[in-house]
Amino acid sequence: MIREKTALVTGSTSGIGLAIARAFAAQGANVVINGLGAPEDVEDERSRIEHEFGVAAHYANADMSKPADIIDMIATAERELGSVDILVNNAGVQHVAPIEDFPPEKWDAIISINLSAAFHAIRAVAPGMKKRGWGRIINTASAHAVVASPFKSAYVAAKHGVAGLTKTAALEFARSRITVNAIAPGYVWTPLVERQIPGTMEARGMTREQVIHDVLLEAQPTKEFVTSEQVAALAVFLATDDAASITGAILSMDGGWTAH
After folding, report:
1. Backbone phi, then psi, for 250, in 5-degree steps?
2. pTM score
3. Backbone φ, ψ for residue 59 (5° rounding)
């Protein structure tokens, strides 16, 4: 059912998003990747997907903080590839600081890219999915869509918002054969997580090793990072017919973090 469909994955030039894009391509889906990176590195990833999996792979340089860019990215994908059947809202940024020291511009950026971008993308793909009578929308949430951690006010607020948006869209699209779900990973070893470490070291007065073992993995009973490939495998499953009755779900993949 995935073969020859088109999957658009935001924030997919590295980390979880790239793993998801590659996983869909491996199933025969054409993909649109989006995100930051040196042009030569992005082109290398794009061409590798095409050559490894024999699918069309396009790159969109849309700025996920700009609604007009998001709308144009989806319109271009629909025009060039025929449709956007699977949307994965994965783009995300992070900043770690106490609330009283949290720069307002960082708050605005995190809410814009982590939450508002998902709304604008869903709004843009919905008409086409409804017309075709099929669609899959998968949002990358976080354990922080369910629980909170100190010094991450904007991120936690945004991910809680993603959970609410997921449930609302699922109810609205329930009769249109469009499912909307969120994957809520715990800590996945990605560049985004790695970049959190210096800020957490400063905020908590810890060493790098202490942050990894006493902050990041402290929350996960398995004491292991989730892998990008595990998140990607769940995303692919959610796009299959076997998952057609799963909608409005916030699916934890966090080593037991939120089981408490």
Report:
1. -110, 100
2. 0.93
3. -115, 130
Report the distance separating Cα 30 and Cα 42, nearest Å.
17
Sign of the C-alpha dihedral computed for residues 139, 250, 108 and 103 taken in this order: negative
Whether the CA torsion 142, 147, 149, 152 is positive or negative: it is: positive
The CA distances from residue 23 to 29, 117, 128, 153, in Å, are 9, 23, 23, 32
Encoding tokens for residue 246? 């799963």
What's the pLDDT tens digit per position in 215-244? 889 889 999 999 999 999 999 999 999 999
pLDDT digits (tens, 9 = 90+) for 58-116: 999 999 999 999 999 999 999 999 999 999 999 999 998 999 999 999 999 999 999 99
SS3 247: coil
In-domain check, residue 212: no
**SS3 of residue 226 by DSSP:** strand
Q: Does residue 207 sit within a domain?
A: no
Q: How many angstroms separate the CA atoms of 35 and 3, rounded?
A: 24
Residue 221 belongs to some domain of the structure: no
63-77, 194-208, 223-237, 246-260: range with lowest mean pLDDT: 194-208
Strands (E), the chain: 6-9, 30-34, 57-60, 86-89, 135-140, 178-185, 250-253
Whether residue 195 lies inside any domain: the answer is no
- The DSSP line for 2-33 is -TT-EEEESS-SSHHHHHHHHHHHHTT-EEEE
Residues designated as active site: 155
What is the domain extent for residue 10? 6-187+227-253
CA atoms within 13 A on the CB side of 221: 7
Amino acid at 35: G
Q: Residue 98: which CATH number?
A: 3.40.50.720
> Number of structural domains, the chain?
1
